[in-house]
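Quick illustration, no need to memorize.
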Amino acid sequence: MAASIISSKMNTLMVVAKCMERRGVFPLMVIQKRFKGNKQKLKMKTDDSGSKTGDRSGSQKVLFPEISLVPNIQGSTTTVASKGKVKKKKQPTIVQNYYGDKPLDDVWISTHYPVPEYPLAEIIKRHKEYAQPAMFNQLDSRIYADMEISLRTSKKTKFISPFKSTLVPPHLFDIGVKKKIIVVCNEKDHINLALKLGAYQAGGDDIVKMLLRGTIKRSDFDYLLSVPGYEKEWNQLQGSFGNAAPSISRGTISKDIEQMVKLYLHGLTYETVKTSQSLAKVQVPFGQLAMTNEQLTENFLFLVDDINKRKPSGASGKFISYMTIVAPPSPERFILNLDEYSIVKKKIKKESPIDPLPVDDEKVMQTAL
């Protein structure tokens, strides 16, 4: 009679354990207790697994050591013994039990399918639909590329340093940073061009005299640009203006008024931030939703091309490992399919390479949250 009861309880426990094994959870531990008279009894371990008072006291023998298992594991599991020793037969692989690669319906449970990746054109379309006047009327919002950059090189133990760059996109837009620029030049055409491009002030000797007298203070402008020919005057301003004084090495003295003004007035500065030894992140705007799809695409390709040029030679894998496109204040975040952007096929010609703005004088734009 006792043997049949033990056998029945053992079968029940085995069935329960089998069911929970299929679910990927194993909270049970079956122990064997020996009592006086050489009687055995199988029971589940509880918080109060110590010996009870009375005649039924004795030693207990653990049939199965305590184990902790990771659910949804393919292959052999990793068992952790109660004493802290780890036993591994082979490396476990976490498997997502999805119903398929893509959902068949327009509405689906997100946990049952992998997060979809979209081409750039589809992402721009979705962000614009959200920002239409009939919806939230946010077409002046900037659209950002939120990227994860791989810092790996051809050598496993070496990584590149975070980098910084300034570029002028093919199609200008409001980057959200207001800058005051003063341009010193003699020719009337250059003065009119500087003012047309958005300079705060432009002129020749009259501007130089106001700077030397202190009528124009350092707090009255962000950048001071000049054509060649005023080097002596700028040396006198080094003491009071410091790095804000025009300098050839900083790119604030040039004959090309248009390029110089565009760089310092509309230049887009981005800087990668290191998150681990092998990864960095950066968030850069490439346009506004009110712009055409073609303009946004050209600005995006121009930006990605500039970043991909910094990939170390011989490094394997994608330099831009992950990217999402966001357009605050919209909460939507879409993952971009990077297959066609690993190496940019379409290249836009630049007039000349542009160096980053001086670190001391830069005002790095505020990125989206």
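The longest helix spans residues 2-23.
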